[in-house]
Input
Amino acid sequence: MLKVPEHQVAGHLAIDGKLGPLVDDSGRFYKPLQGDGRGNKELAFYESFSSDTRVPDHIRKYFPVCYGSQLLEASNGSGLLHHLVLQDIVSSHRNPSIMDVKIGSRTWYPEASDNYIQKCLEKDRRTTTVSLGFRIAGLQLYGGKESGYWRPGRKEVQSFTVYNVRSILRRFVSSNSSIGNENSDCSFAPSIYGGSAGILEQLLELKAWFEDQTIYHFHSCSLLILFDKESVSKGSASVPEIKLIDFAHVVEGKGVIDHNFLGGLCSLIKFVSDVLSDSKESSIKDCVESEKPGICTDNGNCQ
Amino acid sequence: MLKVPEHQVAGHLAIDGKLGPLVDDSGRFYKPLQGDGRGNKELAFYESFSSDTRVPDHIRKYFPVCYGSQLLEASNGSGLLHHLVLQDIVSSHRNPSIMDVKIGSRTWYPEASDNYIQKCLEKDRRTTTVSLGFRIAGLQLYGGKESGYWRPGRKEVQSFTVYNVRSILRRFVSSNSSIGNENSDCSFAPSIYGGSAGILEQLLELKAWFEDQTIYHFHSCSLLILFDKESVSKGSASVPEIKLIDFAHVVEGKGVIDHNFLGGLCSLIKFVSDVLSDSKESSIKDCVESEKPGICTDNGNCQ
Output
């Protein structure tokens, strides 16, 4: 019944006898409770969060539903282990393109040990975390039936520069992403990043909450961005989604906003809106150059 | 002609034979060019900034005017030294209450040396920089003719906790600030923090620019908040001001927003708007409790 998730792009994988999350066919995701208290902290977060009436409904949809915990056979054969039972976000998508973006210009928190802080700081400086306020922790791009998925390895992902990140945010919404060229067409940008139900609007809704909420500080938490390219190509109703995941390092906000998360989120928003503006501009240019009698619509297409 | 500034609340003071800034009677502020290249970096910033057409006029007003540099006798008697010639922001205020707030949850920048980063990080963790995304670097509160100014010493300022910062942001706009009690009345909050020309609106205007500008990253830069309590009490037209100062550690933005400054600024905005909301609520309470037949106006006063 339980199996290794097909579309996991970051974190520990339940392969080669290792410990990792599992999924079932009913849309549930089983995440083994991590040792050294982190698993219990994440479970405690979900419990506190799901009963917290201060969290508005329009924000709650950006978090996976949690169904408590359950004892299950661990994927590494070590026997029964407590697992967090979560909504399998990916299960509703057929060929999902997914990006896991770790938000914040630091992944450590003030209360942590000096050792932990130095370890995180080193990685934050080595990746784009310090410079961009976020880093891509993993991704897969669906290129179509023939080319399948592009899923760069962990080492490649960890070496992404600012330039790479900008280029990946373009390739993520391009019809020619699979060939890995530098001239991504960004043809899906208007329908994925743009529009009233697009990624940008969702990020802005989340941002408005972070400008005000002082309940939680989300350290080392990831934002998943996912969509189904085939649905988009076919004009289907499938909407792009964002979800926050990984809450082992959430601490109380104590009346202060999560300025670390918010700053990084604003940086990501700027990158996404840059891609969207560029794609609109180049659409207008295309319309003009092709001397079509049509006009450019709001979503960047020629009419 | 040149003298030690009367209202300098942070930084090196030109007293006891030490090197520090000087002012004249015509509203100019002379800042000695700091050694190890920092002075030249600050001068270079002002030169680049003042000719940068990408900076809109409504943002330019938040920076002191720079009149170039000038050779002057240094305050420590070491002879002629280059000084940055700036607008003396404080000169237009009679009895200014001033707060110097260093913005950002880190004061170091990625390109700095490991030693410099460790030194900054240590201070950032010791102060409220990491927890709040900003720290108060100095302040003076004018209490009236009799009580004069409250200006805490450097050590006291450096030991401010989150609790202290919140309390000072209340005392800063209270009529009973000089007695240092815990029940600051925040009676000036509606006219200083609130209103269309108040501190909050100015901070929000600056924030909107920081959400978009990718030209500069302002590390270890301060935001001065200043106003003249006597003018406010007398209902004069003197408006509260914010100004950015200290640009020795500004680096190029290279297409990325200054998420470190922006996050800290948003945190400060939340603190200021919390004080404002509280003061409005307590005004309404006062109106109700005093059973006045009046109503509470938008600026929190009873009518």
